[in-house]
Specification:
By secondary structure, the protein is mainly α. The protein has one helix and no strands. The protein has one helix spanning 2-36.
Amino acid sequence: MIIIAIIFWIIIGGAALGTIITLVKAIRDWWRGDKFDGGSIMPFH
């Protein structure tokens, strides 16, 4: 039971970490695009 719980924790934790990294990269790309393209990426500007 403990081994299964650890495996699930690693899978869930890895998926969460991957999601956070993806979001950080997307925010960085969006921020750079917003600054260099004059806000063309942001539809409400």
